[in-house]
Each structure stands twice: as C-alpha cells, then as structure tokens.
Design brief:
The chain is mainly beta and 425 residues long. It contains four helices and 24 strands. Residues 1-27 form the signal peptide.
Length: 425
C-alpha cells in the first residue's frame, strides 16, 4: 500500500465522496489509470478533430467522461478498489473527421469495445492500438483509413470481432492476425488489400465468419483454412485467387455460405465440398472451374442458392439435383454443359430462378416443369435446336410443349416472365 495515500484513508473514513478522491490518488500510482488521465486522452483527441460533431458537445473538462455521449464506464477491480474506468467508445455514424492516431491508447487500457464505424477517420491505423489488451470488439468499417494494417494488431489478444471493411487499406494481411485466436468475426472486405491469405489465419479456430471479399488478394487459398471448424460463412469473392479450390474446405462442416465467385480458381469442384451438408449458399461463379458437377451434390439438401455460372463446367446436369428440395435459385449458364435437362428438376418445387443459357444443352424443357409452382423467371435461351423444333408462343406453351425430355426441342430466346400460375392454366 503506497504510504502517500495513508493520511487520506484516515481523513476519508466517514466521507463517502472522499473515497472517489482516494481512488484517483491511488490510481495515479498504478500506471496512470486514473479516470482523469482517460478523460484527458479523450479530450485531447476531440481537440484534434476537424469540427467535432454535435454528439461530442457533452465531452467537457468539468464533467465525468462516464457521462459523455458515446462513452461507457465500468467499475473494475483494481487491488482493493473498484475505480470507474472507460470501457466503451461507441460513436458510429457520427461524422467524426480526424485521425485515430491522435487518441492516446496507452491512457485507455480498459477499453473493451470500440465502435467508430461509418465516420471519416483517415490516415493510418495506429500501431499503438495494440496496447489495448482488453479490447474485445473493434468496429472501424466505413472509414477512410489508408496505409497498411499494422503488424502489431496481432497483440490484441482479447479481440473477438474485427471489422476493417470498406476502407482504403493496402498491403498484405499481416500473419500476426493468426495470433488472435479468440476472433469469431474477421471482416476485411472491400479494401485494397493484396497478396495471399497468410496460412496463420488457419489458427483462428473460433472463427465463424471470414469475409475478405472485394479485395485484390492473390495466390492459392491456404489449406489451413480447413482447420476453421466453427466457420459458418466464408466469403472470398471478388479477388484474384488462383489454383484449385482446396479439398480441405470439405472439413468446414458448419459452413452455411461458401462464396468463392469472381476469382481465377481452376480445376474441378472438389467432391469434398459435397460433405458440407449445412450449406445454404454455394457460389463458385466466374472462375475457370472445369470438370463435371459431381452427382454427390445431391447431398447438399439444405442448399438454397447454387451459382456455378461463367466457368468451364462440362458433363451433363446430374439428375441428383432433384434431391435439393430447398433450391430456390439455380444458375448454370455460360458453361460447357451438355446433355439434356433432367426431368427431375421439375420436382424442385421451391425453384424461382433458373438459368441454363449458353451451354450445349440439347433437347427440350421437360414436361415436369409444369409443376414448378413458384417459378418467377425462366432463363434458358440458347438451347440447341433439334429436329422438329417447335417455337413456343408463350409461357403456357413453354410449359406444355414437350412431353419427353430430349425428344422434341425448340429454341427459346430471351427471358420468360411467368408471372402467375393463371397464365399457364
Ligand atoms: C450527467 O449529465 C447530466 C446532464 O447532461 C446531468 O444532469 C447529470 O447530473 C450528470 N451526471 C453525473 C453523474 O455527472
Ligand atoms: C453513415 O452515417 C451517416 C450519418 O453520418 C448516415 O446518413 C448514413 O446512412 C450512414 N451510412 C451507413 C452505411 O450506415
Ligand atoms: C499517453 O498516456 C500515457 C498514460 O497516461 C502517458 O504516460 C503519456 O505521456 C501519454 N502520451 C501522450 C503523447 O500524451
Ligand atoms: C460495451 O462493451 C461491451 C463489451 O465489452 C458490449 O457487450 C456492450 O454492448 C457495449 N455497450 C455499448 C452501449 O456499446
Ligand atoms: C504472433 O504471430 C507471429 C507471426 O505468426 C509470430 O511470429 C509471433 O510469435 C506471434 N506472437 C505471439 C505473442 O504469439
Ligand atoms: C463487391 O463488389 C461488387 C462489384 O464491385 C459490388 O456489386 C458488391 O456490392 C460488393 N460487395 C461487397 C460485399 O463488398
Ligand atoms: C491445419 O491444417 C493443416 C493443413 O491442412 C495441417 O497440416 C495442420 O496440422 C492443421 N493444424 C491443426 C492445429 O489442426
Ligand atoms: C466426407 O466425410 C466423410 C465423413 O467424415 C469422410 O469419411 C469422407 O472422406 C468425406 N469425403 C470427402 C470427399 O472428403
């Protein structure tokens, strides 16, 4: 016990307000954690902002920061004391214009929660933020940060949520992020990040969402991502990833959404992916994927949306698609698919959008399609014409035209809008 505060103890014995004073005096002996120094750090930051927003008008020297808009305090245990400390800064959508580097993070060591998303913070993401060892949530998306993600961010060992999306951050994803093993959500989409996904990301075993879409990331995606067994959402679309889709992704058995579209992936659809039986969304469109659609795809019975268009997929449409009873959207267009449209697709009662155009699909629209109750748009132009072609004159005819798959056929051009069941009866 610091001797300098001993006289105060006696003075304050019966005076409750004095205890606060005592706490502050004591706190000053423990690495500057006094509420006063936290207040000073926040006020200094405010003074560096270009025209501080109205919400910050409560940030005044003569008031407790615990009473300021956007600030929350908690009483923390500190030795025998429970001083109030600043734990939350929450000012999203506030029009704050300035630099985060001006905030003295070493004076705010108790921060657990920072939400400053959708402001106008510019400049670098300061390495000094790494001193916030209690920080659990860091939402900084929708700002104008530039420069690199500091390597030191890997020191934020309590972090569970990190969002740096929608910024102008550049450079590589630091491997040190792999140290943040408490992370459940890692969102760094729509920035200017380049280079590979570090294989250390595979150490984030608590990750549920990994969203790195719309960047300029390259190389193969690391096999270690297969270790992220809690992952339910993996969004890597809109990058320049190449090489095969690692078959290790088939170990992500909790995955509900796998979005790898708009990249340069090549090679076949790994059969292991058909083990991901919780998948709702499977988007592999706009890649160089070749080979057939594996018939095992029928195991994905929760699948709601399947987007495989704009690839080099060959082979025919597997009749096993009939097992995808939840399927709502099926995009197979712009591939090299051959054969005919299996009648079984007519059993997919939930189908609303269906696109087959620009393939080498031969044959007709199977009669079974008349059963599709909820179909909204039916896009099949470019089916090859076969003998005795008959041009359908309207949606009604379209559904009645063919009796048997692959026997009669016709060219269907454009988009048919089948508004309601009335038009087909
Ligand atoms: C907090 O601020 C309000 C007005 O902004 C004031 O009425 C109240 O007394 C303040 N509370 C404390 C504990 O400072
Ligand atoms: C961002 O905040 C502004 C107000 O400052 C608001 O009008 C806008 O809708 C917000 N944008 C998003 C994407 O939340
Ligand atoms: C930041 O805060 C710490 C702790 O209160 C203090 O020691 C340091 O001098 C401050 N740094 C600046 C640049 O004000
Ligand atoms: C304050 O931070 C905690 C996490 O440390 C969080 O659960 C809580 O929602 C935050 N409160 C506000 C009002 O932002
Ligand atoms: C953090 O990650 C880097 C790179 O992966 C590693 O070299 C370093 O030892 C890690 N630090 C800690 C504290 O785990
Ligand atoms: C990604 O980029 C595309 C095209 O630039 C855009 O339409 C889409 O909204 C973006 N999505 C996300 C999640 O950033
Ligand atoms: C993670 O994945 C890699 C490659 O698949 C593997 O070699 C490694 O043993 C895995 N690590 C753990 C901790 O499971
Ligand atoms: C699918 O999962 C089963 C059970 O875990 C496993 O035995 C099989 O090898 C997996 N198949 C593929 C293609 O990865």
């Amino acid at each position: 016990m610091p001797s300098s505060s001993t006289p105060l103890v006696y003075l304050c014995l019966l005076l409750v307000p004095c205890l606060l004073l005592l706490q502050e005096a004591r706190a000053a002996h423990h690495g500057g954690i006094s509420l006063r120094s936290q207040q000073m750090a926040l006020l200094h930051w405010k003074s560096t902002l270009a025209s501080p927003p109205l919400q910050m008008s409560s940030w005044q020297e003569n008031t407790s920061p615990c009473n300021w808009t956007g600030i929350m305090c908690t009483a923390v245990r500190h030795g025998h004391l429970r001083p109030w400390v600043v734990t939350n800064i929450s000012m999203p959508d506030a029009g704050i214009r300035g630099q985060l580097g001006e905030l003295n993070f070493s004076a705010l060591p108790f921060l657990t929660y920072i939400d400053l998303h959708n402001n106008s913070l510019h400049g670098a993401l300061p390495a000094s933020i790494s001193s916030l060892s209690a920080l659990s949530v860091l939402y900084l998306h929708y700002n104008q940060f530039t420069g690199k993600i500091p390597y030191e961010i890997g020191d934020l060992q309590s972090l569970t949520q990190l969002s740096l999306a929608f910024s102008r951050l550049r450079g590589h994803i630091p491997a040190s992020l792999g140290n943040l093993t408490m992370l459940t959500n890692l969102l760094i989409h729509q920035t200017m990040l380049s280079g590979p996904i570090p294989e250390e990301i595979g150490r984030l075993v608590n990750l549920q969402t990994l969203q790195l879409s719309n960047n300029t990331l390259t190389n193969m995606i690391p096999k270690t991502l297969g270790n992220l067994s809690q992952l339910d959402t993996l969004r890597l679309f809109g990058n320049q990833f190449s090489g095969p889709i690692p078959q290790e992704l088939g170990r992500l058995v909790n995955l509900q959404s796998l979005q790898l579209g708009i990249n340069d992936f090549s090679g076949p659809i790994p059969i292991s992916i058909t083990n991901l039986t919780k998948l709702n969304h499977l988007f592999l469109f706009d890649n160089q994927i070749s080979g057939p659609i594996p018939p095992e795809i029928g195991k994905l019975t929760m699948l709601n949306q399947l987007g495989l268009y704009l690839n080099q997929i060959t082979g025919s449409i597997p009749p096993e698609l009939r097992k995808l009873a939840m399927l709502n959207l099926l995009y197979l267009h712009e591939n090299q698919i051959t054969g005919c449209i299996p009648q079984e697709i007519g059993n997919l009662m939930k189908l609303e959008i269906l696109a087959f155009y620009q393939n080498q699909i031969l044959g007709s629209i199977p009669k079974t399609f008349g059963k599709l109750q909820s179909i909204r748009v039916f896009v099949t132009y470019g089916l090859k014409i076969d003998r005795n072609g008959e041009q359908p004159s309207g949606p009604g005819n379209l559904l009645k035209a063919a009796d048997t798959s692959c026997l009669t056929s016709f060219i269907i051009d454009g988009v048919f809008e089948l508004g309601s069941r009335d038009s087909t009866s």
